[in-house]
Amino acid sequence: MSSWKQAVARAFEGAETYDRAAGIQRPVAEALAVRIAGLALPARPRILEIGCGTGFLTAALRARIAAGPMLVTDIAPGMLARCRARMGAAERLRFLAMDGERPCLSGEPGFDLIASSLAAQWFEDLPGALAGLSRLLAPGGWLAVATLADGTFAEWARAHRAEGVAPATPRYPPAARLADLRLPGCTVSVSVAPVAEAHPDGHAFLASLRAIGAGTSAGRAPLPAGTLRRVLRHFEAGGARVTYAVATCLVQRSADQAAEMSTRMLPRVACE
């Protein structure tokens, strides 16, 4: 695991106030669960969740899909613990601390559904990660991912440009690049919807990023205090609102591979 990914994991470990600050995480997870419930899935699908956080998508899926076996994973053990507490005595759930970019699964059958809500934006190689996850699907299986696309935090970026500086927030891929992904044996569709979030002021926005573990910059030095104050004034003059460009990626593995894959097991890879 890279030093940056380790920093991300530590940030999420420390996100004790995550649920209170996760203004868009819950509605995005609910919307993804609704999309998934409309897919052609087996009666009791085998499910893998990547980046469960505190369990918004876990709970939404269990409320809408018949309870098949479900493996719930997150890079941060503390998040897994909070998800486990949220789910209580729900049956047929297993929990595993795992980096979704580097799945460590031992002898698992292919999954009918792999789902992830607002975790894939932390992947260092998103196309490679989605390709790897798609290979874990059973024939006809679905990979359903809600992630962030270009245009996210546009208001925050505009406030920085007004001062001639660049924001430390990550650069997210354009929707067209996501739609152009070519995953062998799979079809890919992508849709993008804006989700707006309002804050009392700029400091509240920054505090919300820290509270959800999202204050980890990609090695950029923080702005000088005076420059940050001016950026915050520009941001607040625009209403202290931010937009998340939420991309929903639906990937389906061809059912024609059934004869080849019906008895295939996932490779035996140990967690480090």
TrEMBL record:
Pfam families: Methyltransf_12
Domain Methyltransferase type: 48-143
Keywords on record: Methyltransferase, Transferase
Any one Gene Ontology molecular-function term assigned to this protein's record: methyltransferase activity
GO BP annotations listed: methylation
InterPro entries: Methyltransf_12 (IPR013217), SAM-dependent_MTases_sf (IPR029063)
Domain of life from the UniProt record: Bacteria
Annotated PANTHER family: TRANS-ACONITATE 2-METHYLTRANSFERASE, TRANS-ACONITATE 2-METHYLTRANSFERASE-RELATED
Record-given protein name: Methyltransferase domain-containing protein
Species: Methylobacterium soli
Species lineage: Bacteria, Pseudomonadati, Pseudomonadota, Alphaproteobacteria, Hyphomicrobiales
